[in-house]
Design goal:
Blueprint: H1 5-34, H2 39-62, H3 66-83, H4 91-113, H5 121-134, H6 157-161, H7 192-200, H8 220-265, H9 269-276, H10 283-326, E1 328-330, H11 332-335, H12 338-348, E2 353-358, E3 363-365, H13 366-387, H14 391-396, E4 403-412, E5 415-422, H15 429-438, H16 444-449, H17 452-456, H18 480-489, E6 493-499, E7 503-511, E8 516-524, E9 527-532, E10 536-543, E11 548-550, E12 553-558, E13 561-567, H19 568-571, E14 585-593, E15 596-601, E16 604-612, E17 614-615, E18 626-631, E19 637-641, H20 643-652, H21 656-667, E20 672-676, H22 680-692, E21 696-700, H23 703-712, E22 717-720, H24 729-738, E23 747-751, H25 756-765, E24 769-772, H26 778-788
Parallel strand pairs: 2-4, 9-19, 13-15, 20-21, 20-22, 22-23, 23-24
Antiparallel strand pairs: 1-3, 4-5, 5-7, 6-7, 8-9, 8-16, 10-14, 11-12, 12-13, 14-15, 17-18, 18-19
Helix pairs in contact: 1-2, 1-4, 2-3, 3-4, 3-5, 4-5, 7-12, 8-10, 12-13, 13-18, 23-24, 24-25
Length: 789
């Protein structure tokens, strides 16, 4: 039967998803058997693996994936022999079965790419068939490849776990290759942990030919909820249509009234009186009735639409939430496959590890799940390699022979906390600081001043490592800056808890979804931007005088630490803003990226709001400093900035930033003006004029209070009236100009006294300007002030 090519493609996608699930079930069963599962537990494991192999065989034949079907059939027969106890369940048997699982994954990749598999299928089938008959491999096909025993840190571990024959892995390699479980030499001596990564996480090269189609299983009850909300949405649509009909009736009624009144307005007075005489009511009463009728109709529709709008809002919010849950996948899809990787790395290192997961039923957005794969795998490799001791060392310390790695997951609101814990040797703070000093990441005096938390965070710095922490598999500290970088890209965080001799915990925090977030809205360079709030350490205003010079740059001191200061508009390479500096205060947003922090100057801090972030797609995904965009309520597009990129870009800026900020900030500190006048009207007028131009203004109601104000504060200019109680303006100006301390302060006399004698008196007491109120204009006052300051 010839099927449509599009249907065939969909069937293959469905089969690929099912294959991953079935192979995972087989892998988990084999690992359980390896832990000496006996009795009913052993039978359940074998039955589960038998059913999975049987289902794979049938599905593979349905899409004509013949290689996969043949391997599944051979595994099914071997599991059947195990169930009848005709085949021994040994470490060598389990390794052969795990290798067969890897070969099926590779065969799936080859099937989707329409390329030959990179292994000898007939030899593999021969090995599986021979094992179910005799319980062992043929003598001329040893399970341990000679190349496996030569790698330094693997030692005799490979002898215990074995490998598959060279003859099986001798064929041409596909891009995914056969994992290091079976043929380490095929990976060029790469560590088993790295080679296993793609296998353990269920990722293979065929994703490239799936045209970006990602399949997710959705529970039926979720679809039922979405369907019910869609029906409620239809009911709301009918309500809106009813309201529209009512509005149309009101519109026709109003139009009728308007036409009638327009016709009456065009009549001559005599014609109007003739028509009006036949009416039972006066025109005014009729108009009032018409307006009242329209008012009642509008009010009724308004109330109905308020109710409909409220219901529609609830429905749309619920529908949005439910649709969002359709994208969520359980953490189990990531955490369960890790058991295979942990088992293989531990065997490579000659260690025993028990793996435990709690809370993997919690769901999260697939992009977040994909984003935490690499950090999680890196932490686990480090935990096995350097966190856990060897069996001999553990027994000597009174610990169980097998180390324990546990992953616990908890949900707190819209964030998830994932804790990776081992019961190994812990992390030595002293060794960390010593390694940091040796690598010249900081000097000895700085290391001594670090708190315990700050010292532990050194392992996340780029370039941090120590000789004791390096192996082929991993190094606690080697590459952990990449872990932090990946988490920052997910708007996540990481914390460390460790006790020497007892173990270490890495606590990862990240959002459930990247589609929605709270954003801090700011203006810079004449444009508005959103910064994800989760990366904002604090928002504040600082005085320009608080900026300090450090190493040809500028900084502000926050909690005793100097934080570099940069202008956001300069970081984004926009026109220079900083309009807010005209008032002498600097709006600052402090961001952190791992152990690095920066304070960004902005023109204005608008506020915080919830954002639906539309992330950039290829090829725009590589744009620096930008995550994506969001829409405001008015439909305006606002760019959402990438906090991690902002910190990196800001700290890479040259020292030219220092001079511009320093010069501009100092020159824009607002001058302080003292206004002295006993008239509240004049005081208020002058105060408003000056403040509108960016001046700071203080007021006094007579000359004596003005003189007292000069003793308390520093002023750049005095504006005074003449006729005032207690001390007049001439006396105040004379006292200012005769004072050694204040004689340099300009004094402007603004008065209604316009005689020549009064003008001479003002000059005699030392006033710098004399403005008559009758001639007073805003421009005149401001021009005089600008000349004097």
């Amino acid at each position: 039967m010839n099927l449509d090519p599009e249907i065939v493609k969909q069937l293959i996608q469905v089969f690929a998803a099912e294959l991953d699930e079935r192979l995972l079930a087989i892998t988990e069963g084999l690992i359980a058997l390896e832990k000496d599962e006996t009795g009913a537990g052993r039978d359940r494991c074998i039955d589960s693996m038998f059913r999975s192999a049987h289902n794979i065989k049938g599905a593979a034949r349905g899409v004509d994936a013949r290689d996969i079907a043949e391997i599944a059939h051979a595994l099914e027969s071997l599991f059947s022999a195990m169930r009848r106890e005709m085949a021994e369940v040994s470490a060598r048997t389990i390794n052969l079965c795990l290798f067969s699982v890897d070969c099926m994954r590779e065969a799936m990749t080859a099937f989707e790419l329409q390329k030959p598999s990179g292994f000898d299928l007939q030899t593999l089938l021969q090995q599986l068939n021979q094992w179910q008959i005799t319980g062992e491999a043929e003598a001329d096909a040893p399970l341990v490849a000679e190349g496996d025993k030569s790698e330094g840190n693997r030692g005799d571990a490979n002898d215990a776990r074995g490998s598959t024959p060279d003859s099986i892995a001798s064929g041409p390699r596909t891009p995914s290759g056969v994992s290091a479980v079976s043929c380490p030499e095929s990976n060029g001596g790469a560590p088993a942990g790295d080679a296993l990564k793609s296998t353990a996480l269920g990722v293979h090269d065929a994703d490239a030919v799936r045209e970006g189609v990602v399949m997710t299983r959705v529970a039926l009850h979720k679809l039922d909820l979405v369907s019910a909300l869609a029906e409620d949405l239809l009911a709301s649509k009918i309500e809106i249509e009813d309201h529209l009909s009512a509005l149309q009736r009101l519109h026709h009624e109003a139009q009728s009234y308007a036409n009638n009144w327009a016709r009456l307005a065009s009549m001559s007075p005599r014609e109007f009186e003739s028509v009006a005489s036949a009416w039972e009511q006066s025109p005014v009463v009729m108009a009032a009735d018409a307006i009242g009728s329209l008012k009642l109709g509008i009010h009724s529709i308004y109330k109905q639409m308020c109710g409909s709008s409220s219901r529609l809002g609830l429905i749309s919010s619920s529908l949005q939430d439910q649709v969002r849950t359709l994208r969520l996948v359980p953490l189990a899809s990531l955490l369960r496959p890790l058991a295979r990787s942990i088992r293989d790395i531990a065997q490579d290192l000659g260690k025993k590890v028990e793996y435990e997961v709690v809370g993997d039923e919690i769901e999260m957005d697939r992009p977040v799940l994909e984003g935490i794969k690499d950090p999680l795998m890196h932490l686990i490799r480090n935990a096995i390699d350097h966190g856990l001791e060897t069996p001999v060392e553990r027994l000597a310390k009174g610990k169980p022979e097998a180390g324990r790695i546990s992953i616990s997951v908890a949900s707190t609101g819209n964030r998830i906390l994932l804790t990776v814990r081992d019961d190994g040797a812990g992390i030595s703070v002293a060794k960390i600081t010593a390694a940091a000093v040796r690598k010249k990441l900081l000097v000895a005096s700085e290391a001594e001043a670090l708190t315990r938390r700050e010292a532990l965070e050194l392992i996340f710095r780029p370039g941090f490592s120590s000789r004791e922490m390096i192996t082929n598999i991993s190094g606690r500290g080697v590459g952990l800056d990449v872990v932090l970088s990946n988490l920052n890209s997910l708007k996540g965080s990481v914390q460390i808890e460790t006790v020497e001799g007892e173990g270490t915990s890495f606590i990862l925090g990240f959002p459930v979804s990247l589609s929605t977030d709270r954003g801090l809205m700011v203006r810079a360079g004449g444009a508005e931007f959103a910064i994800p709030s989760v990366s904002v350490v604090r928002v504040m205003e600082v005085d320009a005088s608080e900026l300090i010079d450090i190493e040809a740059s500028q900084a502000i001191v926050i909690e005793g630490k100097a934080v570099p200061v940069r202008d956001l508009s300069a970081v984004l390479e926009l026109a220079q803003g900083l309009s807010s500096l005209q008032q002498g205060r600097l709006p600052v947003v402090m961001l952190s990226n791992g152990w690095q922090s920066v304070a960004l100057l902005v023109d204005e801090i608008v506020g915080e709001r919830e954002c639906v972030v539309k992330r950039l797609k290829a090829p725009l995904i590589s744009i620096r400093n930008v995550i994506g965009g969001t829409l405001t309520g008015s439909g305006k597009v606002v760019i959402v900035l990438n906090p991690g990129d902002l910190v990196t870009s800001a700290l890479r800026m040259d020292s030219g930033m220092r001079t511009r900020v320093q010069t501009q900030s100092r020159s824009t500190v607002a001058p302080h003006v003292l206004v002295v006048d006993d008239s509240i009207t004049t005081r208020t007028l002058e105060k408003n004029i000056l403040e509108s131009q960016g001046f700071r203004v203080s007021i006094a109601v007579d000359g004596r209070l003005g003189w007292e104000a000069l003793q308390k504060e520093k002023f750049d200019l005095v504006v005074t009236d003449v006729e005032m109680p207690v001390m007049n303006g001439f006396e105040l100006a004379g006292r200012i100009k005769s004072s050694e301390r204040y004689r340099e302060i300009p004094v402007i006399v603004v008065t209604s006294l316009a005689s020549e004698a009064d003008r001479r008196r003002g000059v005699e007491v030392g006033a710098d300007a004399y403005i008559v109120k009758g001639q007073f204009e805003t421009k005149v006052l401001l021009d005089v002030i600008n000349q004097l300051i």
